[in-house]
Amino acid sequence: MTLVKRLPTLTAITAISSLLLVGCSPGQSTTSGESGEPRSGGQLVMAREADASTLMPVDATDNESIWTVEEIYDTLLVPSVDGGTLNPSLATKWVQSEDKLSWTFTLRSGVTFSDGSPLTSADVKFSLEAASDPDLPSAFLNEQIAAIEAPAPETVVVKTKGVWSPLPSVLALFANSIVPENYGGLSREDFAKAPVGSGPFKVKSWNRGQQLELVRNTSYWGPDRPYLDGVTFVTVPDANTRATQLQGGQISINEAPAASSFAALASTPGLKASAFDSSLTSFLTLNNTRAPFSDVHIRRAIAYAIDREAILKAAYFGQGSAAGSFLSPAYWAYDANVTGRQFNLDEAKKEMAQSTQPQGFSVNILVTSGNATQLTIAQILQSELAEIGITVSINQMEPSAQRAARKSMDYDMAISVATTDITDPDELVRFIAVQSGGSNALYTGYDNKEVADLATKAAELSDQAERVKIYSKIQEKVNEDQPMVPLFYLPALYSYSDTVHGFQPSITGNYNLVNTWLSE
Fold it and tell me: Mean pLDDT over residues 65-70, rounded?
């Protein structure tokens, strides 16, 4: 999720082969230093570990759904690629009132949905109100919206319950994408099957679990965009199979190649491999609602027992860095002084001795089947936790089943990742550390009222320096409680054909395929 104002310089995330990040609007090309004139045409094929679970912006929670939604719909504002600014999208201007209790947005003239119908303030009002339904997973970010008014076709006024700094950033959130008023006369269920947006691509077909095909939206408002005729997302859970398909020319882009094969792919003729700057953070999530993980000493012991540096070398081949805080260095609120419980076997044993299970116990860890990197991590954790009496069994599950198990809290431990969708800390702080923040605190069940109250207080302040102080307190408190174990800050790995140009995922993960093109 994104910002309206310029942010302070972002802390760089350790990554090799990292490309230059350039902020752009849809009307600008990001070629990452590439030469050559962009050309129109061609079908790009991207292989992903899992399929999108929904194409409804308000229902999306997984990255596959979120990053697909962002190709089909538009929001009022968008984050720059480097996360440093908010750029215009459907709104070309936004102004805060003197009392700081409302924002007025001026809409871009002449925008239509992919079916040719005009996009007006009535659509914006409907969309934002629909996204604010408290039963929806991302609605917590809209909870300070008091009213939405549409005084003119190209004017929207958003009123807030109090001073609320994250608002412009929140309106760049995928869940606040603009859909036709009343779903264009369809029921919500029927619209979900045939969605209509104003983004660069529109849905042609979707064979769930296998293939999702998008085609160019010829009504798109961005000049001469998109370049591509279309994009096909194919679901290929196994990393080795994706690598083979890329080398054989069956796909154009391999999302999340195995780190073990990254260097080889980078040196393969006809291919490119890039580690893009990212907000990606890896976690060992612990089910705090289930014994013995309800015991803070158990959670701390596990954190101390993990040798992150050893795992980075074995599983990520040195890419990324050991995590301390749960908050990514991509944020201006990241506190480098929160270093976490780094590897210390003596301290781990002391925590176990104080716990309810000093003699140890048995536990299951969920990993995604076909994900060689996760399996390597789990195997190392299995060995490391055995040193403090914890016997770990590895349970491999296909991505959608793993996702369902975590959401239903039917698990012990799991390897998971989180990325930000906006660069204001409000989203991820509440998503990871607040029970009501849309994911049951990253599906840990962690519930600390002090943390929740601090998160609310931070969002109400307009002074960024004061917000930083509060976010530091939150990071310290979460570190003390250790509801999950932050493992690594990671780059976003992609391998792709050298015929792919202008491919530059943003620090939030957005593919930005509006600017991607294919050479012959």
Answer: 97
